[in-house]
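Posted in: Protein Modeling Q&A

I'm a second-year student putting together a small comparison for a lab meeting, and my supervisor asked me to include a predicted structure for Protein translocase subunit SecE. I've never done this before, so apologies if this is the wrong subforum. The sequence is pasted below exactly as I got it from our records. If anyone can share the structure token output, I'd also love a short note on what stands out.
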Amino acid sequence: MSSKVEVAEGRFDSLKWLVVLVLVAVAVAGNHYFSAESLLYRVLALLVLAVVAGFVALQTVKGQKFALLLKDAKSEIRKVVWPTRQELTQTTMIVIVFVLIVALILWGLDSLVSWIVSGFIG
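Accepted answer (user: helix_wrangler)
Welcome! Here is the predicted structure, written out as tokens:
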């Protein structure tokens, strides 16, 4: 049942995506064609075309799903417990110390292997 509803809702989706593609192509071609014009006017025209293309894209089934994804992501970000400055500083220092220790260990192993190989090669 839901697939029939989705097919009915998404019936003109390919046409809408074609309109978005044409708008993007017009923006690119227009920017090239009017390259002698002021940058401000070209940027404003590109922004207008981008907003119109985004609006048309949001009218498709995939566009609506993307908008729902963004809405859900925004609500999930609000649930995140961000670390305090002290926790962030301590964690960063722990990572830096650990990286330095591992770097020293790898340097030591590299020097040892290099010394052993140079002993065999002579």
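A couple of things worth pointing out for your meeting: Residues 81-122 form one domain. The chain has two domains: 1-80, 81-122.
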